[in-house]
Specification:
Length: 415
């Protein structure tokens, strides 16, 4: 630290100023800004969410307002346009804010209104990525992974320059916000960031070929019921290097896909039932978090249900007679059994053919991939919707319809 040129104090040239407040651009600024903003919201009657610190809720009789903040970008929605307008005026007393109008673009995600709800895509992001990698004119393919093929550390020759590989895989990670169909393949190539080979780079290019075929695909959200359901699956000992299993889940609120995961499990499972049971525990923990979140949003939820295609894992979750066989399993994995016993969770059987989480655990054939993808709310954007600002009708007044109709975005501008 030194005094700036032209403003040196001749009497104390070695002294520097101690900041009493954070300045925009310093590493302490985001924390100070969030603290200031959240305190003002709480003064206005908002309550910070325990499940997500960036979410604030306001309830006053029949009035419901939700506010979500990410650094200096803000989303605001509710069932009263008058209260929303009043809130913005109150915030502008202390903060200089720009009203960006109805939600169209947020953190790289494009939001398109349809006749029934919202369609979230990252089409521009995909186009920019294909352009940057010189893959804009590549041949499109129908599936991002080869059926039955798992990548290994020993595959291929080490890349001479790993910079591009890391850059592209990092960019693909951001696409997972709206593209669950590539979650498994991106997770697989991400495991080789430290030592990528030519085979791993070919796998990355295959993902880009698939994105070329589906640039406008994204998640569709529409008003639906408040029933939490999940699909959980595990690919037993699928990793050829350390024999760990890959687990995946997808969580639905009604017909809307709200969460998904594809991740290698922490330890090695002795048999397939153990791997599936571990995945049930991971999924149950995720469902518990969502139940806490929706409870804070004052949304009534029935006990959620997990669909699993392994009968033995379902029996372990509900029948203590399997304790002898599973006694080596860590205690925290029996979390799901406790939930089932308390009737806070139910576990049901689903055929492997209809197991949606199968998409997140292994590479499958193009036909199976297309079939399972058709069961997920991942759709291409109709051409007729491009550039359309036509508002949807207000026939359905449930809480989910707020997000489809009255979401506004704002940007805080430092002065």
């Amino acid at each position: 630290m030194r005094q700036p040129s032209g403003f040196v104090d001749s009497h104390r040239p070695t002294h520097v100023y101690k900041l009493q407040r954070s300045l925009y651009g310093l590493k302490q600024a985001p924390r100070a800004w969030f603290q200031c903003f959240s305190q003002h919201l709480e003064h206005l009657g908002f309550v910070s969410s325990h499940a997500d610190s960036s979410l604030f809720t306001f309830f006053d009789g029949s009035v419901v307002l939700y506010l979500l903040i990410y650094v200096d970008d803000i989303l605001n929605t509710g069932n009263s346009t008058d209260h929303i307008a009043r809130l913005i005026q109150q915030l502008r007393v202390l903060f200089f804010m720009k009203d960006l109008g109805p939600l169209h673009y947020f953190l790289g995600m494009e939001v398109h209104r349809t006749a029934t709800g919202l369609h979230l895509t990252q089409a521009k992001y995909i186009t920019d990525l294909l352009t940057r990698t010189n893959m804009l004119d590549c041949k499109p393919i129908s599936a991002p992974a080869i059926s039955g093929r798992r990548l290994s550390l020993s595959d291929g020759e080490p890349l001479s320059d790993i910079t591009e590989f890391r850059s592209v895989v990092g960019a693909l990670q951001y696409l997972l916000f709206t593209r669950p169909d590539i979650a498994f393949t991106v997770n697989q190539v991400y495991q080789f960031m430290h030592r990528p080979t030519t085979v791993h780079w070919v796998a990355v290019k295959r993902i880009l070929h698939y994105l070329k075929a589906t640039p406008n695909h994204g998640i569709v959200y529409k008003p639906s019921s408040f029933q939490l359901t999940a699909y959980a699956d595990a690919d037993y000992a699928g990793d050829p290097d350390n024999h760990r299993s890959t687990g995946g889940y997808c969580i639905f609120l009604g017909d809307n896909l709200i969460s998904w995961s594809s991740k290698k499990q922490r330890g090695v499972s002795r048999f397939s039932t153990e791997a599936e049971y571990h995945q049930l525990a991971y999924t149950a923990a995720a469902l518990s978090w969502y139940r806490t979140l929706f409870r804070e949003l004052h949304l009534p939820l029935a006990p959620p249900r997990i669909w699993c295609d392994n009968i033995s894992a379902i029996s372990v979750a509900s029948n203590p007679v399997y304790q002898q066989r599973m006694r080596h399993v860590e205690v925290d994995y029996h979390y799901v059994r406790e939930k089932v016993t308390r009737h806070e969770l139910t576990v049901g059987y689903v055929s492997s053919v209809d197991q949606l989480a199968d998409l997140l655990t292994k590479g499958i054939s193009a036909a199976c991939f297309t079939f399972l993808l058709s069961k997920l709310p991942v759709r291409g954007l109709p051409v007729s919707l491009r550039g359309s600002d036509k508002p949807v009708s207000h026939k359905n007044k449930d809480v989910l319809s707020f997000f489809a109709q009255d979401v506004h975005s704002y940007s805080y501008i430092a002065n």
